[in-house]
Amino acid sequence: GYNNIEKYAAAIAGESIQLGNSVYWNAASGNAWNTATNWSTSATSDVAYNNTPQALDDVYFTSGATVTLGADQSVNSVNSSSSGAVTIGAGAHTLTIGAGGINASAAGGLTLNSNVVLNGGGIAASGGNITLGEGLALNNGNYQWSVANGQSLTLNGNFTRNNATVDFVNSGTV
After folding, report:
1. pTM of this prediction?
2. Radius of gyration from C-alpha coordinates of the chain
3. What is the biggest distance separating any 2 CA atoms in the chain, rounded to whole angstroms?
4. End-to-end CA distance of the chain
5. Residue 72's closest CA among 56, 96, 42?
6. Which residues pair with 138 in a beta bridge?
7. pLDDT in tens, 102-152
8. Neighbour count for residue 8 (Cβ, 10 Å)
9. Burial, 15: exposed, middle or buried (Cβ in 10 Å; 0-12, 13-18, 19+)?
10. What is the pLDDT of residues 8-38, one digit of tens each?
11. Spatial distance between the Cα atoms of 132 and 162, rounded to a whole number of angstroms
C-alpha cells in the first residue's frame, strides 16, 4: 500500500492512485473467505464490508480463525495480531499477496495452507510463527524476511523465485 507521504504527494501532483481498504475477519457467517458478511470495516465493529477482500485490500485477523479460501484470492497483505491460531486455506487454491506482505505480530501465529504467491511484499514474524503449508512463489523483486528471535518461518511445498532475491533479517529460525 501507499504510506501517507506517498498519498499526499500524489494528491498534490494531481495524480490518481488506487487505495485499498483495511478489512477485518469477523466470521459472522461461517469460515468461508468468499462470503462477504464474514468481513468488517474495523476490528471493533460489525459494520459489514459488503464485499470479499480485493487485490488492493489489507486483510486483518484479530482473533483465532480457521478460514477456507473456496477459490483463488488476491489481497495486498495478510496480517494476524491474534493470540489464537489463524489458519487460512486448504486445498488447491492460490492466495496472491501484494506489497503489504505477510505479517504475524502475536503469539497465535499464522498458517497459510494454500499456494502463496508474493508480489513485492515481505514476510514478518515479529510476535508469532508463520507457516506456509503448500508452497511459495516470489515474483520480481527484493524480498525481506524478518523473523524475530524465538519465532520461526516454516516453508513446506515448493519454493520458487522468479527474478527475486531474499534478504533475511533478525535472528529467528527459517
Report:
1. 0.88
2. 16
3. 46
4. 26
5. 96
6. 118, 161
7. 999 999 999 999 999 999 899 999 999 999 999 899 999 899 999 999 999
8. 11
9. exposed
10. 555 566 665 668 999 999 999 999 999 999 9
11. 18
